[in-house]
Amino acid sequence: MTSEGSERRSEERVEPFAEGARRQARPGGEGGEVTSEGSIQTAGDTADTVAIMGEKHRSRWVETLVLLVRNPMAVASSLVLLVLVIVGVFGDVLAPYGYNEQFVGDQLESPSGSHWFGTDDFGRDVFSRVLLGAEVSLRVGAVAVGISLVAGVLIGLLAGYYGRWIDDALMRFMDMLFAFPALLMAIAVLAILGRGETNAMVAIGIVYTPIFARVTRASVLTVREEVFIRASRASGAGDFRIIFRHVLPNAAPPIIVQTTISLAFAILSEAALSFIGLGTQPPDPSWGRMLSEGRGFIEQAWWMALFPGLAIFVTVLAFNVLGDALRDVLDPRQRSALSGKGAAR
Amino acid sequence: MTEPVLSVRDLNVGFRTSRGLAHVVNGISYDVQPGETLAIVGESGSGKSVGTLALLGLLPPGVAKVSGSAVFAGEELIGRSEEKLRPIRGAGIGMVFQDPMTSLNPVLTVGRQIVEAVRAHGPMPKAAARARAEELLAEVGIPDPRSRADAFPHQLSGGMRQRVMIAIALAGDPKVLIADEATTALDVTVQAQIIELIGRLQSEHSTGVIWITHDLGVVAGIADHVLVMYAGRCVEEGSVDELFDRPVHPYTRGLLGSMPLVDDPRPARERDPLSTMPGLPPDPVRLPPGCSFYPRCTIRADERCRTEVPPLVPIAGSSDRHRAATFYAPEGV
């Protein structure tokens, strides 16, 4: 790696470690900054008092919100998700027609003034069904991911923190679940629980648990070795406090990203389960179901698959963008870079 | 002499490895008096940190094998359960670690971390704990503690963070403070400030301090009693004057010889070149049968050096706290 490359990296991470690296990487350039940093180190610790003094410390959550609002992508994705939630809650008010209202003779109509997204093979309004499907898809996504998030993170924390036989037992069990193809696993669970939307959520939740467990455990393994974990044990903190106060917040960024990705996959899984008749039961609308149904008519009526597909796409994209922004904002080191303060700047 | 606050006897620590048991600490004994500073010196891997982590049960339980005795305030520490050790951690024995960059949790404000340490030992209302945290920050010399408490660790310089670490260690008002290479990662000026700070707090609270370091300059400045470790054994101990003026063990002499003298009266070009000790410490899995320093020793005074572990015995003509583990008896020390 060239010295310039390493310098850029150190600047991006904006860690105090970068001070040394920067000083080494460019002894000649940035003279002013080097001396100012040098004087921070030597002239007692008063010099960088200036850096954060005179500015009120807002509460952590207020600051998180402020930073989030400053990021246009985060604002855009939040707005999209807000609209989706509103649609999910008030879908039956907003939809121009009922989800199962059939216009005989108007089957497979292309988009028009009266049917914005066209009609399907039963003559039902696709626009209304997309609006009403938002509720199902969002609920299934949120509940299923909620289940796998809680279960997976707990398992990953225990396995990663305690290690040894606890790790072996939990993770081998997770491997076992992971060995099944996701859909097959969900089908097996539904075969036991019975079909239906609620059970589909549980099944999807179980299927995605091992991923969360693995991501969490991997993250915990690196955090566990940090000196501050040992330091907090040395100051008398108990396991519970260490796990939830020190380990989890530091292990969170990959989990947050995994959550947003999994929301997308959960919506798609629900679609797949509904397609084979185990999830949402017809005639209830769900985006996944509609996408699957539309597939058969893609040559005659592209709108049947396109609009629910677009809805899934937009939702998934919004979750991912928001997740990315959240991860940046929740990491205090990144946060300093975003708000342009802190010793390293 | 007063009653020692911490008394360690024949402490052994082994690590189970794939090649067998690694003998990292072998039969270390020492006492810490209230208000006294005990310096433990030795090179990397000599077991000086591991020996103190073992006291608080901070070594990985499945891997480390600890035996011996360590009595703190009348209570045996070795072999205690995790729950029974917790009240002693922080409140009885506090610890400051080497690297202030990594020993603070990056996602919590320093105030929160001190509050946590304060509340780890008994319930206390949040506001009171917060006030105590600010008090501690002021005590360790951090200006404007109220607003500093809301800073994240990365917003502070290295010296500041080490002060915060000391504040956390003091939160439980410990009787013994273990400073594990506490100044190694800091530059010299800040190092001097931290040493002074710990010295001041020590005399105010009459805390016993175990100062782990490989910096003999620091030792000369702060220690009352010094323990020199090599390959997990104590090779020599004594008061700081005895040890620096009349080192006996070839290893101690080598260490002191490898240090430049600031007050050497001769001009630079006439001084003796700094000596080095060739070789590496022995493999802890396969310690030599005799003196562990034998492979690197240039003196090898006695046949027994190779076959027998020399016992730690008092040095003739010194106080009885000056002891060395060597068969070599230099003339005129």
TrEMBL record, chain B:
Query: SUPFAM superfamilies from the entry?
Result: P-loop containing nucleoside triphosphate hydrolases
* Signal peptide stretch: none
Give residue spans, biased composition: Basic and acidic residues.
263-273
NCBIfam families found in the cross-reference section: oligo_HPY
What is an annotated GO biological process for this record, any one?
peptide transport
Q: Which UniProt keywords apply?
A: ATP-binding, Cell membrane, Membrane, Nucleotide-binding, Transport
The organism is Phytoactinopolyspora halotolerans
Domain ABC transporter: start-end pairs: 8-256
What name goes with this protein? ABC transporter ATP-binding protein
